[in-house]
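Re-run with default settings, no changes from the original entry. Doing this only to confirm the output is reproducible before filing.
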Amino acid sequence: MSYVVGHKRNLELLKKILTGPKRPHALLFVGREGIGKKRVAVLCGAMFLCEKREGCLSCRHCKRVLEGVHPDFRLETPKGKRAILIDQIRDLKEWAFMVPMEGRGKVAVVDDAHLMNQQAANAFLKTLEEPPEDTLFILITSEPSMLLPTIVSRCQTVRFSPLSREEVEEVCEREGVQGEIRKTCVETGSLMFLSVKEEQIERARALANRILQNPSLKMMGEGEAFRDQKSFMLFLFWLRRELNKKLAKMNSGRLWELHRRMKEVERLAYSSNVSPRSLYDYLLMGML
């Protein structure tokens, strides 16, 4: 199980679920971003399709699941403006009802499942109402409240706790991550920023300090730099870090308003397809 760091209880539970006589048709993985939920879902795919039925990670089925090339394993992620569209779900449903090509069944993982739009969610619900017998669906989310209650009720929920400081350190050590990147991962308790670069951290920290020191309308254009959610969340981390330092020294109405807006923006960044640029502009307006 060295493929996954932490989550030992969940791994033991999932092994029992996948090898038990009454396997559910769908699992729902719930937990904060960057703690390894998707990695566990991939491992579940390996367990389910493994020649030894244990996720040995060395047989041909396990290896191809980890490489993302197994014909009976599928990972669906948001497209375009961070949304899962109905065409994706229709295609997934068609694939799910096909006869397995090699394994004893199929595994379909839907990452950021809360980003299914209304049509996609309704289509997926119909699939869960009459699921194919040999397909296991695994939904991953950091925002379960954004999912249809009827989808949640048809899944067995598995809740994931944040990684400990020691577990994050272990991953960083294994991956050879040092410096500011390592500090950021350890401080946030998340592996979301494992692949960022030192210069991205410096830019995020510099922008956060500039906004707190002297915000201006000229800075609205800075939002163009946020090409994806990860870069924006990195900026929010540094802004919150520096903001908390200031709030510890002074009681400012302007800073508390920024604090309030940050909570709202962080929620929207995780649970909606609002662009990072728009969220940045909204945040900055609270400072002007």
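The first strand starts at residue 26 and ends at 30. Residues 8-159 form a domain with the Rossmann fold fold (CATH 3.40.50.300).
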